[in-house]
Amino acid sequence: MASFKCPDVVNNPGGWGPCTLPEQFKDIPYQPFSKADRLGRAADFTNSAYMGRRDRYASQFGAGGDIFAYYEENDESSFQLVDTSKAPKTFRKKTWQNRNLQRIRRDERRMGGTMQMLSRGGVRDRDRQRQERKLQKRWAGRRRWTDRTPVKVRDPSVEVQSSWKPMEELETGKFSKLSAKVDKPEDLLLCGSVQYYDKTWDRINTKSEKPLHPVDRTHHNVTTTDDPHIRKYSQSIKGANVFATDTILSQLMASSRSVYSWDIVVHRVQDKLFFDKRDDNDADLLTVNETAQELPQEEGDHYNSPERLSLEATYLNQMFGQRCLKKQTKDLPEPNPFSASSEEEEGQAASVAYRYRKWNLGDGLTLVCRCTHDAVLQDAKHKDKFINVKTLNEWNPKSGVDWRQKLDVQRGAVLATELKNNGCKLAKWTLESILAGSAALKLGYVTRNAPNDPQHHVVLGVQQFKPTEIAKQINLNLENAWGVLQHFVKMLMKMPEGKYVILKDPMKPLVRIYSVPRGTFEDDDDEDDDSEEDDEDDDDEEEDDEGAEAAPAAVTEAAAGRTVTSL
After folding, report:
1. Long-range CB pairs of 311-315, under 8 A, 24+ apart, other chains included
2. Is the pTM for the entire model greater than 0.85?
3. Can you give the pLDDT at residue 294?
């Protein structure tokens, strides 16, 4: 008969559960575990795929999972085996180099196998050359980190002297936050003699390109303080306290887009500011590819160096602006204030109209500026409208879009490339046209006959824009441009009277203002030399009695000649 033994029941008066450890579980270690731990590690052969990452079978209790690990009793923990052999190289970190090597060797084997299958003679050489060209094309576009073009150190437009005192330092990147609203200007004077634009140049295309021949004309780039009308307005117009030219104003307004160095001289006389330029300044020279990703890297007298390209662009801009005009001339109420007095030399002056205008900048600031028109255009109603004519030149077809192939079919792509490479130059041209109130801005596309021939050029086409429309295309905000100018004017008005230089850093987007001595950029050497020559002549006159009567007349004629030359 089966027997039943009642198990021992432990009474726990202080809680629940057993009071003592059962006999069958004595001396057995306990390992904490979690229900989320995965089982199957002993038979899992794919755990090596998780190398370098968290073990998929790791316990949530950390090192507590080693409680059942096997340990040998006679473990010689102090014994170490020294292995002097080199560890095998692992190429895990340079897999991309191994892949490139494997690709090169595979191509070489493929090319070698192909060469073995070819018969002897010209066929084998021709196919070998074809395979070499194929490999060269594959690796031609890939550049190594050692092939980077070194950064060219650019020189400042003027050397900073030790006597110059730094006053302010401005970051051009912060100019985008400036803004100012300016009312319409008031016209003061219109003078000069300007010719009519020839509309036949608008029908030129790449298939009917026209050579650009030089024109013998005199261009007057007179600065602010040498302008007789500005001198008159500084005394006659009440409240006028800021004076400049359109070239200087456009440089200041577009200063945030400039890359090359430039400088402007400022004269603070009482409560008036005169924005001026140096005699040997390059402000009138046009830049080439100033805002491009890769600037021209040639140096010295090379025809593609930045200096030579600047001279070439300025020359083409002047020649095309005079070549595209008719012989018909429109005379304005006042003559050109900078042309010579003789009629023979007046005929050689370039076609130009000067418009003097006045703006109210607010806060008691009144601007008087001399603006420029290049030509006159008759519209459909036979009304005369003043326009500006500028030139874009191509110097290297391989550096961007080839104009001879794309200008007629993709003119927008050509213009977009020029906006990217010459954004600062186009912004200044647009600002000059808006300041002058020109009805249109015509851009001529001029290229070289050959890439290595900077002497002969042809015209491939002409395109016309409204200044306000092209300003939108190049993201030129007029309120921001006026705000930048107003910021410079207010800053200089707070400084004491004297002479200042605004200098753009050649390598950084910074504009610095220096206080310079009053005699800076003024050459008195010629006057000293003339006085020394006059003293020597006087000594010779005293020693020579026979030429005593003729010498005073010669000195008077020489002095008169110098006076006429200086005027």
Report:
1. 311/285, 312/288, 312/393, 312/395, 312/454, 313/285, 313/286, 313/287, 313/288, 313/391, 313/393, 314/284, 314/285, 314/286
2. no
3. 78
